[in-house]
Fold this sequence. Notes:
It is built from three helices and five strands, in the order αααβββββ. The protein has helices at residues 8-25, 32-47, 55-82, and strands at residues 94-99, 106-111, 114-122, 130-137, 140-144.
Amino acid sequence: MDISPEYYSLVWYIVGVALIITDIAAFSLMGLLFTGLGALTTGLLLDLNIINDGWMPQTIAFLGATALWALVLWNWLKGLRTGKGNVKNVVGDIAVVEKAFDKNGKGTVRWSGTTMKALLIEGKATAGDEVEVIEIKGTTLKVKGK
């Protein structure tokens, strides 16, 4: 099945959104986000007639846009993963336990309106209790119960 050139940009938009949603759902905050933004950028370049609808210009635009987004966002996103950088450091903030911690100390907490994975490092806490964030490891908050 051939796709009409008038729909190429729509295909890039769909692929871009799907990649970004997959990245966010997997909590990776890397990799697929850049390729998704590269795909969205390629669709925009097609819509603005900056590149033509040939496979080579689209491929070059996609690879170039993906690399550019990675260069621009890498350090900022790295700061999100480590709790450092240009994002608010949550260490010391209070979160509320949503899903009780299992025997390994794994559960979920609600912090700043967002449900996040958590690891109970010390103390005790059950669903509804407040805990203090003591460290961030990747996308997991390490917390201390009372």
